[in-house]
Amino acid sequence: MRILVTGAANPFGAAVCEALAKAGHTVRAFGIPAGVDPFHGADNIECYPGDVVAGGSIEPVAVECQAIVHCANLDDAGKDKQVQAVRIEAGTRYARYGAERELVSHFIAVFPAVPARGMGEATRQAEAHVKATRKLVPHFLLHVASPDEAARQVLATLAKATPIPA
Known about the structure:
Elements: E1 2-6, H1 11-22, E2 26-30, E3 45-48, H2 59-62, E4 67-70, H3 81-102, E5 106-112, H4 120-131, E6 139-144, H5 147-160
Parallel strand pairs: 1-2, 1-4, 2-3, 4-5, 5-6
């Protein structure tokens, strides 16, 4: 399966990319700075620059993908809480739009088990975007506490999810 992973530069997204590649999937790691390859040339991980908050930037990378795993919610919050709240809510909305426009067979959104301080409302809004995904795109919400748990849950979700026939 070809899978786009957002937030691939954070520890959670990187763990998901590596686990998916190890399981035999082709991974498109989205959000990696141009010219950087944290996966050291792994054969089945391709790195793409971009930002989920830039509307329309995810779709060109999502073309021909069967799944989108949205891990950008787990990016480092930094000091500007307002900017991070916008990144969580808008990033999830744009990842959802990408999943819907490309009609992927799995849209998995990964959230922290406990939202960062001050991010509760933004997280609730982002989760509402996932739940509002069109019925043609099976969607899943995961809450994780560690990168290893994120990788395990994503693999388990893909294993048990059944794509809708074309």
